[in-house]
Amino acid sequence: MSGRRIVIGIGNPDRGDDGVGRLVARSLDGRLPADVEVVEADGEATALLAHMDGAEAAYLVDACASGAEPGTVRRFDAAAAPLPQAAFGLSTHGFGLAEAIELARALRQLPARCVVYAIEGAGFETGAPLSDAVAEAIPQVQERLCCEIEQPADVGS
Amino acid sequence: MARKTIKVDYMARVEGEGALKVVVRDGKVQSAALSIFEPPRFFEALLRGRAFSEAPDITARICGICPVAYQMSAVHAMENALGVAVDGPLRDLRRLLYCGEWIESHGLHVYMLHAPDFLGYDSAIHMAKDHGDVVRRGLDLKKVGNEILTAVGGREIHPINVKVGGFYKVPRRRDLQHLAERLKGARDAALETVRWVAGFDIPDRERDYTFVALRHPDEYPFNEGRIVSNRGLDIAAAEYDAHFQEIHVRHSTALQSRMRADGSAYLVGPLARYSLNFDRLSPLARQAAREAGLGSTCRNPYQSIVVRAVETLYACDEALRIIESYREPDAPAVPVEPRAATGYAATGHGATEAPRGLLYHRYRLEADGSIADALIVPPTSQNQASIEEDLASYVESFLDLPDEALQHRCEQTVRNYDPCISCATHFLRLDMDRE
């Protein structure tokens, strides 16, 4: 793969488990091929769009709240289909990850490979620490990301 | 006529989380309530005991969309407490940084959040399918705002370069030159934006608001000025508490601000700023406003999208003016000592113009410069009473609309204010369809 590759860790570190995406991004420091960019973002859609612009592959990591067991990790192939949130037209905040992906798709600038790792959060209270269940999920996501970025063809989508 | 309840549990396209409930009975609006799940006063508590110098970076974390506003109100309040004045190129750089935030924030709201309401789309995504070029223009305009934040603020989200007394590091003149080229393009795009939104089908509704905004002797206000109203108020930031109060309302965890004298609602933000400072806009922005059909006062909140576009044009124009006249300062900041002014405990007040309106900070400092007490009054809590009054008075005139269109109109009415509701929650809510 020769095009630009980027990992985007999304979240707000002041809101408990919401910050996990950024912690995953930090955990990748020094563990990925040198050409892979790793950035942190607060989740605002147009900023995500700008990060993804021109990338051949984008890997996004965010916390989610779907009612599943805290710490549950799910992988979505966003290049193949919208995230479930967008499919149901629900959004709790103005303009975030799901919107960024759909806006990029509408503008035909979605990276050919666009993968989202969603980590189920336990709590999103302002000022709360990361929950144990979510902290324990970080190494798993780190491992899976390293693996699929090194060998993208081996990962089914 | 039956009772009708319009309930929107999670409102899309407002920054943060909010819920809206309007109850209609016999053709009359019985109640209109906007619930705001604001983080409890977490940041005010977090500030207690910290050094005065930490306030800009801590308060910048309150809002991902308007961190500069929080930083600016914080540094001005601290400088007020410590008797420090920042002027010349450092003052200009602060205005430049604010220009970047307005371009970014207004660009996001005008194109991505509000325009779909006027063009009949559910979202910017749907709009992008039919109007890709327009959406790209909005994205590019906003990006120029980000570039200013990166050049002056150190990075595009949560700028880290601002400190009490000035900056950690100031940009070189040549660093700003490439921005000038970008800004010329952005200014053209902003002018096109004014023309674009002026052509929208805008509801014709007006109320006699109490407008509150900063006013400066010779500038359209960002950082400095007296707090004035169209009803004769003219005070320094230090007198804010004597004229405004925050009260708890049952349906919202956020506080609502009202005029202390009579408990009435007031309005901050683009409409207020524009109506109180039309004569301070640049000639280009004034001319564009006139061509867009705006008078020197605007009382129609549905026209706020046009006013935001005019302010975006002004911000591009002003940023260019600042860059063209920029001289590198001798030092990136003026010295600030906790005891510089008083040698004993001091209180400082700061009010600046966030994109959404007046943002007031008050800090009480101990003699060692640590923060004894902090108060932050964001624009959205000041506007909340006006938003509810808008819903109560305008919705009645839209009751002939079918339910879905009526609900949409209510949401649009809230979005007129670009409410920054919880300022900082960005998790992804997933609703899984399980078999």
TrEMBL record, chain A:
Q: Which GO terms describe its molecular function?
A: aspartic-type endopeptidase activity; enzyme activator activity
The record's section on InterPro entries has: Pept_HybD-like_dom_sf (IPR023430), Peptidase_A31 (IPR000671)
**Coiled-coil intervals, chain numbering:** none
| Keyword Cell inner membrane among UniProt keywords | no
User: Which Pfam family, just one, is annotated for this protein?
Assistant: HycI
Q: Which GO terms describe its biological process?
A: protein processing
UniProt keywords, alphabetically: Aspartyl protease, Hydrolase, Protease
SUPFAM superfamilies cross-referenced by the UniProt entry: HybD-like
Question: Is Mitochondrion found in the keyword set?
Answer: no
Q: Which family does it belong to?
A: Belongs to the peptidase A31 family.
Q: Which PANTHER family match?
A: HYDROGENASE 1 MATURATION PROTEASE, HYDROGENASE 2 MATURATION PROTEASE
NCBIfam families membership: hydrog_prot
The name under which this protein is listed is Peptidase M52
Species source reads Thalassobaculum fulvum
The opening ranks of the lineage are:
Bacteria, Pseudomonadati, Pseudomonadota, Alphaproteobacteria, Rhodospirillales
From TrEMBL, chain B:
Q: Which UniProt keywords apply?
A: Iron, Magnesium, Metal-binding, Nickel, Oxidoreductase
So where does Fe cation get bound?
66, 423
Q: What SUPFAM superfamilies does this protein map onto?
A: HydB/Nqo4-like (SSF56762)
- Name the Pfam families on file: NiFeSe_Hases
Q: Where would one find coiled-coil regions in this protein?
A: none
- Alphabetized GO MF terms: ferredoxin hydrogenase activity; nickel cation binding
> For Mg(2+), which residues are the binding ones?
44, 376, 426
Binding site residues for Ni(2+): 63, 66, 420
Source superkingdom: Bacteria
Protein's UniProt name: Ni/Fe hydrogenase subunit alpha
What are the top taxonomic ranks of the organism? Bacteria, Pseudomonadati, Pseudomonadota, Alphaproteobacteria, Rhodospirillales
